[in-house]
């Protein structure tokens, strides 16, 4: 056991450790304008995992944050903000190689947000696996992570996570002929994602869970076609929420409990989550999709060894 591990093991246990992006949001003070139209921005601490950490700390849980920011004024401001909200920052690193991530945000007239990120790269993108404080993580019962910091190398590890834990899995499109064009490929990608979701539902059913509906939010809701394909493939209705941004609504729910407006998260969600409309699955299309879902599932097992060999060859290792 290293000296660091001996030191950390003596520290009190954490209920939750959140991990991921911690950044500065510059939020337009005017509503209903684009970033280009905005004339004034207000600085605010941001990052979904950090929001979760603060929300849980306000609910009385012992929470720590794991991540990396720049060794600059913004990075230290964020560290102080977490500490002032009783979040343990023992797992937060400061990098001299890049600055803290920045984001400029405005709220458009139709309720959507306009984003622009300054991460070229930012400090969190340079966080390496070997720099993760594993002893710090070992102190917690629950580990919550965000994905934004994992979308670029060296942090990124591609592959499949659910239901197969396979970092060497790779995507593919097969069955192409000369009659297919970009429209077919675009739809194949949409359907492939729906097949993957159906595989997750099948795995849940295998372990005794019975999904009754899909509650959808976020960017994909803009495509009515894609949502209908999801419903048809899974044979589950899809309910749309009135507030399309899940991260904002979830943070508001946590904040309402922390402020004492509701006694618990379940009660807050019951009062704050409202549906706008619902898509029903088409039974005929559902039956037609079953053949393709089965081929999608079989493809992974048929191609797994070849995918692994390809990944290792490209990486310069032995096959």
Structural summary, described in words:
Helix 5 crosses helix 6 (224-234). The chain is α/β, with parallel strands linked by helices and 319 residues long. It contains nine helices and eleven strands. Residues 4-9 have low confidence and may be disordered. The strands form three sheets. Strands 5-4-1-8 form a four-stranded parallel sheet, covered by helices on one side. It has a four-stranded mixed sheet with strand order 3-2-6-7. A three-stranded mixed sheet has the order 9-10-11, covered by helices on one side. It is globular, with a radius of gyration of 22 Å. Strand 9 (214-216), helix 6 and strand 10 (238-241) form a beta-alpha-beta unit. It has two domains: 3-150, Ribokinase (UDP-N-acetylmuramoyl-L-alanine:D-glutamate ligase), CATH 3.40.1190; 182-237 and 280-314, 2-Layer Sandwich (Nucleotidyltransferase, domain 5).
């Amino acid at each position: 056991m290293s000296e660091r591990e001996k030191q950390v093991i003596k520290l009190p246990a954490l209920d939750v450790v959140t991990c991921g992006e911690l950044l500065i949001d510059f939020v337009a003070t005017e509503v209903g304008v684009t970033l280009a139209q905005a004339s004034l921005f207000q600085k605010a601490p941001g990052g979904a995992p950090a929001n979760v950490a603060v929300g849980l700390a306000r609910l009385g849980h012992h929470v720590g944050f794991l991540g990396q920011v720049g060794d600059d004024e913004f990075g230290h401001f964020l560290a102080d903000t977490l500490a002032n909200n009783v979040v343990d920052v023992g797992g937060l690193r400061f990098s001299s190689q890049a600055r803290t991530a920045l984001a400029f945000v405005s709220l458009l007239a139709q309720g959507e947000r306009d984003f622009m990120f300054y991460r070229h790269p930012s400090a969190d993108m340079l966080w390496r696996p070997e720099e993760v404080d594993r002893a710090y993580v070992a102190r917690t019962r629950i580990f919550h992570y965000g994905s934004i910091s994992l979308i670029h190398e060296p942090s990124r590890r591609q592959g499949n996570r659910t239901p197969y834990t396979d970092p060497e899995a790779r995507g593919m499109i097969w069955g192409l002929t000369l009659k297919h064009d970009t429209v077919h490929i675009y739809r194949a990608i949409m359907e492939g994602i729906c097949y993957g979701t159906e595989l997750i539902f099948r795995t849940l059913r295998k372990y005794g869970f019975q999904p009754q509906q899909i509650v959808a939010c976020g960017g994909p809701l803009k495509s009515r076609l894609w949502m209908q394909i999801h419903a048809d493939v899974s044979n589950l209705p899809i309910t749309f929420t009135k507030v399309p941004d899940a991260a904002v609504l979830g943070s508001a729910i946590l904040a309402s409990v922390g402020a004492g407006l509701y006694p618990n998260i379940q009660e807050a969600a019951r009062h704050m989550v409202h549906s706008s409309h619902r898509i029903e699955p088409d039974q005929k299309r559902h039956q037609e999709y079953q053949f393709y879902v089965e081929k999608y599932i079989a493809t992974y097992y048929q191609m797994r060894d070849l995918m692994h060999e390809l990944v290792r060859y490209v990486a310069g290792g032995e096959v």
